[in-house]
Structure formats: structure tokens, C-alpha cells
Amino acid sequence: xxxxxxxxxxxxxxxxxxxxxxxxxxxxxxxxxxxxxxxxxxxxxxxxxxxxxxxxxxxxxxxxxxxxxxxxxxxxxxxxxxxxxxxxxxxxxxxxxxxxxxxxxxxxxxxxxxxxxxxxxxxxxxxxxx
Length: 130
Ligand SMILES: [Zn+2]
Prior knowledge:
With about 130 residues, the chain is of the alpha/beta class.
């Protein structure tokens, strides 16, 4: 997970006005890393975790925008352009490294990852809202 903080000086906005861009890494013709186990692709894991994170953020009142909602290729240039155009408060890029374990293959583990990311984001905004 890579979190880039932008507009940090804008600390007095309400959470409801916060826009988080969720950038599911890779997609389409760009598979990202391939797990040695079962051929699991990073693009699939990144999208799944991103969708779960999107649900968690929206449930608690954040505005969100996903750079991709399906298995399509999005150029790095387009991802950056969107982030700048929408003047997001936070840009979260979701990636997953290939490793010799099967944990990321499970929905339960992906949900845990999404929840951990959600908590990190919520904590960040709590801190800058103080
Ligand atoms: Zn990646």
C-alpha cells in the first residue's frame, strides 16, 4: 500500500467533504505481480481490496473515487491526471506483492487488509482535524 498525502494544509474540512481517491494498481493488460501459487494476479487482488476499502469509506461518509472499478488498464498518466483534477485530499494506491503464501487469496484476509487501510486513513484525517 502506498499512501500519498496531498492538500495537507487544508486541515479544517469536515470528513464528509474529504475526497479519497482509491487507485487499484494495474488492471487489464497489466497484470502486476503473479503469485507463484494458483497464478493469482496482483490486478485482481488490488481491485478486490480497493472495492472493499471503497465500501468502508463510503459507509462512514467519505467521498471516494476509484481510478478503475473493473479489470481495465489505466495509464499512470491518467491516474495522476484524475488525482490532480479532482483535488483529492488523499490518494491511496493499492498494490500487492507476490509471495509464497496463500493468505491474500482469501476473502477474509483481503477484508482485513481493507479494514487496516481504512483505519489508517480514518486516523490520518482525525489527526489533521485536531
Ligand atoms: Zn503493483
